TrEMBL record:
It comes from Indicator maculatus. GO terms for biological process: intraciliary transport. It comes from the Eukaryota. PANTHER family: CYTOPLASMIC DYNEIN 2 INTERMEDIATE CHAIN 1, WD REPEAT DOMAIN 60. GO terms for molecular function: dynein heavy chain binding; dynein light chain binding. This is WDR60 protein. InterPro entries: DYNC2I1 (IPR042505), WD40_repeat_dom_sf (IPR036322). GO terms for cellular component: cilium; cytoplasmic dynein complex.
Length: 112
């Protein structure tokens, strides 16, 4: 609820990494790992911002942020085929209006 993200290893109760206030205090609505690239994850906050984290590029801050100021996004999920090396990765966004939007991710965050 405060925008903190914690990365845990299954064998320990303590986080390997912790990012406090990663969304400027906005609650996190969804977080999902990329299906095609293990070091990348996506975060949706309550203000309809999507943050892209690539831990191989920067493990302190997100590498990109996309804002949807005029749309209230209520849910996010990723689509892709991890078994295929084409690097096709999409984000499916559910809007408060009931519309569904599919956005494709740049290859640099999608390629295995």
């Amino acid at each position: 609820s405060d925008g903190s993200i914690r990365l845990h290893q299954m064998t320990s109760e303590y986080p390997l990494m912790q990012w406090n206030d990663s969304t400027n205090g906005q609650a996190i609505i969804a977080l999902q790992w990329a299906l095609t690239r293990p070091a990348v994850f996506f975060v949706l906050d309550a203000s309809s911002n999507i943050y892209i984290w690539d831990l191989l590029e920067n493990d302190l801050l997100p590498v990109a942020k996309q804002t949807f100021p005029s749309e209230n996004i209520v849910s996010m999920t990723l689509l892709g085929e991890p078994e295929k090396p084409n690097g096709l990765l999409g984000i499916v966004l559910a809007k408060e209006s009931g519309q569904i939007d599919v956005q494709y991710v740049k290859k640099k965050w999608a390629l295995p």
